[in-house]
Amino acid sequence: MSRRESPPPPSPPPPPQMLGVRRGEVECDDRPERTEPLSDAEREIIQDTWGHVYKNCEDVGVSVLIRFFVNFPSAKQYFSQFQDMVDPEEMERSSQLRHHARRVMNAINTVVENLHDPEKVSSVLALVGKAHAIKHKVEPMYFKILTSVILEVLSEDFPEFFTAEVQMVWTKLMGAVYWHVTGAYTEVGWLQVSSSAV
């Protein structure tokens, strides 16, 4: 008489998609689920708060990149011009880092200015994703980390504007940014959306 084995229990569902990544930690996951589109009220909240941020875009961008590189130094491997910098003050003085900070902030500005046009947003983020996948060969997980760092810096530097409600709306936007960027990676044949290489 043969004993019939029961099938293994079903695997638990994957944990919910989270944007936050703690210092030194990187989650390993597949492409996130698409977030729901922003409502008109959410678009207005983002555009209103962004107006305050963008007045100081270069300094905010520099703060974001310094925190990103200090907390996740492996990300510097993609930047030959400042990969050997360790001191935050040296990073702050770097014209190359400032230039890249402006580029990051201008890309976010383009997204925010075009929230009413989802096709334009998708197109802009597809270009960013493809350039980083093909030309720069940046692991897509760094975009997830960067979006979390952006949210941290905005919340800390602009507490009067980044209330809990505003933070939730910005988290939704950053989730959409990450979704579009990783879509571009998938489109160009990047096999792994995320890894634990940090």
- Could you tell me the radius of gyration in angstroms? 19 Å
Average pLDDT value?
A: 84
What's the SSE pattern? Answer: HHHHHHH
Helix content: 55-70%
Secondary structure tally, helices: 7
- Bin the strand percentage: under 5%
Structural class: mainly alpha
Tell me, briefly, the overall form.
globular
First-last Cα distance: 52 Å
By DSSP, the count of extended strands is: 0
Oligomer: single chain
Low-confidence segments, given as residue ranges, are 1-29
Major sheet summary line: none
What attributes characterize this protein structure?
198 residues; 58% helix; 0% strand
Description:
This protein has 198 residues and is an all-alpha fold. It contains seven helices and no strands. α1 packs antiparallel against α4, α2 packs across α6 and α5 crosses α7. The radius of gyration is 19 Å and the shape is globular. The N terminus is likely disordered.
Give the helix/strand layout.
Layout: H1 40-54, H2 57-71, H3 88-93, H4 95-113, H5 118-135, H6 141-157, H7 164-187
Helix pairs in contact: 1-4, 1-7, 2-4, 2-6, 4-5, 5-7, 6-7
Outline of this structure?
With about 200 residues, this protein is mostly helical.
